[in-house]
Every structure is written in structure tokens, then in C-alpha cells.
Amino acid sequence: MYTRDLLSSPTGAVGAFLLLAALWGSSFVAIEAGLAYFPPLLFAGVRYALAGVAVLAYATVVSDRWIPRGRDEWLAVGVAGTLVIAAYHGLLYVGELHVSGAIAAVIVSLSPVLTAAFAALLLPNERLGPLEIGGFALGVVGVAVIADPGGAGLAAGGHGTRFGVLAPELLGVALVFLSAVSFSVGAVLLRPLRTDLPIAALQGWAMVVGAGLLFGGAAVTGESPASIVWNATSIVSLTYLTVLSGIVGFLLYFALLDAVGPTQLHLVSYVEPVVAAVGSWIVLGHLIGGEAILGFVAILAGFAALERREIAAYVASHHGLGS
After folding, report:
1. Cβ–Cβ < 8 Å for 92, 176
2. Cβ contact 86:210 at 8 Å
3. DSSP code for 226
4. Who is most buried in 248, 286, 302, 308, counting CB within 10 A?
5. How many angstroms separate the CA atoms of 63 and 87, rounded?
6. Is residue 65 in some structural domain?
């Protein structure tokens, strides 16, 4: 009740929005730092196993029901666990072996654009007009600009490996792009599965299912817990991702989703890259180049074209984020 009262004011909602953007934007930097000491799929799996248990525990306290029942609810858990948790984070973590967290955050900011496009393809009541198609094209152009082999966007943030200079960075962009695709498809497939299962319970179960799939992927690809290096950096990274970006971030997300709605909350995706870029520079000394910034502007313009009606309605209301 206290949280809902706090978010009912514009100041409280804006503060929560900025805190969520800071937590999720900095998570890209924490992932990049932790990947020096964790195999990627095990890293993601441990994070969401711990966070999932905590969120489920929270759901048992605040919700009247926390165990799914019926085909649709278990299907929703399966879709969210497979696509939104396991595939999204598995691809993202592996992708960040080859590109910086700041670059990854810019590419992931394409998710709302992809979600609108997949909704038009997969849902009968959704449709893209010429302007929306142009917005989608702008978003794709933004990613293409980031992936430009001769551009500074990647050159400033990539990680050299034994495979050479160019191929790993393009592979990283491709994997992170596919992670955004997975998240967006999952979000669209969840829309028709309207259930009475509280969102905290749904997310908690999805995290646990996703963690199991990530552990399975780690076993298949030969990742071993013995290869984890436990030191101050790895422990801080995992703790930050689990507690702050994971548990606190998702609880903030649930509260904001109820208070401001999905369209306004999508704007978090466009603050995250700014936070990630600043954090990557401060913590890791990485800078992103002009091509990455240009790509981000193109993605943001694509989102504005796709969501122009909702944005105009929000601006016209003059009530701020808490309206």
C-alpha cells in the first residue's frame, strides 16, 4: 500500500523510474565485469535461481495465490521462463563476451520496437501502418549502424579474442540482437495468456524455470562450476545482479507497471543505455563511439514513431509519470 501511495505522485513515480533505469542500465556493466570470472550460462543461471526463489517468496507474502493452475497459467510460465528469462539472458550473456555492456544496452533498447512489430505479425488486433513500418526500419538501421564493421561503435567497446578482431564483435551484436528478439517474441506471446496469476508469482516461477534451462544449457555446452573464480569482483557482480538488478529491479518494475502502464515504462529501455555507457566508462574505462550513439538515436526515433499516439496522449495529459 505504501509503495502504491508513493508512486501515485509524479515525483515518486519519476524517482522510481530513474532508479529502475539505473539498476537495469548498470546491470549490463555488472554482467560484463562478472563474465571475466563466470561461464556465461552458469552466471545467468545462478543469478535467476537466487532471484527466482526470492521473488516467489515475496509472492507468497503479498499475493493471495502464488501457484499456477490451469493450462494457460503454466503455459505463461513456460513462455516467460523459456524466452524472456532463459533465451534472452543466455544470448545476452554470451553476446557480452564479445561486445561491451554499453553496446549491448543500446541494442537491447530495440526491444520495444521489435515487440510492436511482432505483435502486428502474431496478434490479430495489431497492425502496423506505413509510419510504424518506418519506425521499425529505423530501429533495424540503428542496429546495422552499430554493427558497421568499420565503425567506431564496436571498435571502442569490443573484446579481442583468439578469433580475430572483426568476427567476435559482429557475433556479439548478432547474439544480443537475437536476445532482444527472444524477449520481444516472449512478451507478445504472453499477451493472449491473460490469467489471474499475480505478476510477481508469474515472474518468480519464470525465473526458476529459466534458471533450470540455463543450467541445462551450461551442462550441454560444457560449462563447469569449477571454472568459476570467486573473488571480490565476481561476488559483488553476482550480488548486485541478483539483489539489486534482479529482486529490487523487478519489484520496482511490477509497481511501476501498475502505476504508469507499459508504454511509459518502455521508456526505461532508452535511459538504460545512457546509464550503461556512463557506468562502463567509470568502472571499466570503456567508451562507445559515434556510430553507437547514432544507432541509439535511430532506435529511439523508431520507438517514437511506433508509439507516437500513446506518447502524444501522455504529453497532452500534463500529469507526468504518476498520472
Report:
1. yes
2. yes
3. G
4. 302
5. 28
6. yes
pTM above 0.90, yes or no: no
- The domain of 284 spans 2-317
Radius of gyration over every alpha carbon of the chain, rounded to an integer in angstroms: 19
Report the domain count for the chain: 1
Asked whether the beta carbons of 288 and 32 are under 8 A apart, the reply is no
Evaluate whether 116 touches 307 at the Cβ level (below 8 Å).
Answer: yes
Whether residue 323 lies inside any domain: the answer is no
Q: Residue 196 carries which DSSP code?
A: S
All three cell numbers of 227, joined, read: 571454472
Compute how many other C-beta atoms are within 10 angstroms of the C-beta atom of residue 196: 10
pLDDT in tens, 167-224: 778 889 899 999 999 988 988 888 787 778 888 899 899 999 999 999 999 999 999 9
Could you tell me if residue 322 is inside a domain? no
154-to-205, 276, 292, 297, 320 alpha-carbon distances in Å: 36, 15, 7, 16, 36
